[in-house]
Amino acid sequence: MTNSELNKVLKYIEENIRVTDQTSIEYLDPKGHIERLDSKQNQIIFGRRGSGKSLLLKSLKKNRPEITCISINLEDFKDISFPNSIIQVLRSLIMQLKNEIKGKYSIFKSFRKWKESRRIIKEYDDILSKLEKRLVQPDNFDESIREKTGSKLSGTAKSGHKNTSASVSAQQSEEREISKQFKIDKLNILKNELPDLKELVNQTCKLLDSNIFLILDDFYFIRKLEQPYFIDFFHRLCKNTSMFLKVATIKHRSSLYVQGDTFIGMEIGHDAQALNLDYSLENFNALVSFMRELLEHVNAKVGVEIDYKTILTDNAFKFLCLASGGVPRDFFSLFISLGNKMINGDKSISKPNVIDCSIDNLPNKLEAFKTDTADEKEVLEHYLQFIRDEIITIKKNNSFLVSNSEIISHPQLNQAIKELVDLRLIHLVNSNTSSAPSDGLRYSAYMVDIGLFPNANPRDFKQTLPDEKDDRGREDKIRSAPKLSISKFQEYIDNLNIKSELALTE
After folding, report:
1. Residues near 56 by Cβ (< 8 Å), separated by ≥ 6?
2. Nearest to 73 by CA among 88, 51, 95, 52
3. DSSP symbols for 415-477
4. What is the Cα–Cα distance from 437 to 398, expressed in whole angstroms?
């Protein structure tokens, strides 16, 4: 391997690490997600930040050109109040549909389609005009209707051969003004207009002779309490039409429905099907193989034949996979840093190099954590702090066990742990294991992110890999990891007197 070859690889990864219209890297699909995604049904794509959700959705456009794909990134509307967020996304949808139709039909080749396209565009323009006006109105407001009553004038006239007579009489009434107040709700107005909009969507599909996939990327940027109402609107818009929802989001940062007097939102298994992109540490060997495939794919794209086993020791590569938590973007980010070390003189990459890079990358991960958690950031920081103190500082371990039966009775703790996994700060290793020695209970095993380590070579610190064997040759050495005290955890949170709570998800 030469520095020139490695430079080609690093440059290609840097250019493609974030998905744009210019991204040339392809989605590697060992789980068959692409084939499932192009089905005519609503789907929710779950995956942590950097897991490949946007790349998968981009491949949908490439592989199914006969389907009209309308893609909207909801991060663009993360600071928009509700229901203006719905109006903004609806505007974006309509404008993109207009562009799909505009200029596509010639008056000479198909007068009927040309005329129909003009009519549909006119209707879309009318809707856009109304939506523009609503954006500047408050979410709820009073509208006054004023009526006036006043004087009434009457008269009669008679005409004869020699004379004419006329009389006029006025019936006076007090002039008065009546004011009627009506409560206006923008969301209800939008819902009431759905039937007409759905009909227009169907007419558009018929004109284009195409189904429409409405892609809503980064759904988790919509405020969690507003998410069920947001997704409910677009689910209603798509229902019984030829338009289907493809929603990409982080699982436990998403609240897809609420059940009250009425059901609001979308329910997995009924209204939509789920696709899970995450590679977890539960199948560590499959994860390691997938990451090697990613590097071989890059080799093929840039035309080099680098043997990565010669530059990363086997243990270093496993720790690189562990540090990524199964997230391709995190894997590539760390690989870029490690590759630059080699170009600057390091002959090979060792485990301490990987840990150093992970620690250096922690500020970027914490910045993403703050962005993704929005108004729940401070609450989750407290939960993370307890785990860091208890497991890393006191227990000096990278792994811990949580009792499956005990955590269920503490929904806020349970939610926090699930969200910290989705935010890539702790990683699930085994969702159903026993402890060593066994106490008859079942546990979930986790590992803290390597970036949280105190340094590259912490003293008296126990580091375990998910596939590491114990003294009896069993690949579950993590069973001897310390148990997280749920009662101590709850007491710590209670003593903080946190006023806000985490919104619970399924």
Report:
1. 27, 29, 33, 34, 37, 45, 248, 277
2. 88
3. HHHHHHHHTTSEEEEEEEE--SS--S--EEEEEE-GGGSSSSS-TT-B---TT---TTS-S-G
4. 19
Helix H or strand E encompassing 215: strand 212-217
Dihedral sign, Cα of residue 471, residue 477, residue 482, residue 487: negative
Neighbours of 270 (CB within 10 A): 10
Please report where in the chains the tokens 């893609």 appear, as a residue.
Answer: 71
Locate the domains of the chain by residue range: 32-138+185-276, 372-495
The residue assigned the tokens 């998910």 is 466
Q: In degrees to the nearest 10, what's the CA dihedral of 89, 91, 93, 95?
A: -150
Residue 272 is given by DSSP the state: B
Give the position of tokens 């997230």.
Answer: 327
The pTM of this model reads 0.85
Task: Answer left, alpha or beta for residue 52, where phi above 0 means left and psi between -120 and 50 means alpha.
Answer: left
Q: What are phi and psi of 370, to 5 degrees?
A: -65, -40
Per residue in 435-477, pLDDT (tens digit) is 988 899 999 999 999 999 988 888 899 988 888 877 776 667 8
Q: CATH says 32-138+185-276 is which class?
A: alpha beta
CA 483, CA 401: separation in Å to the nearest integer? 5
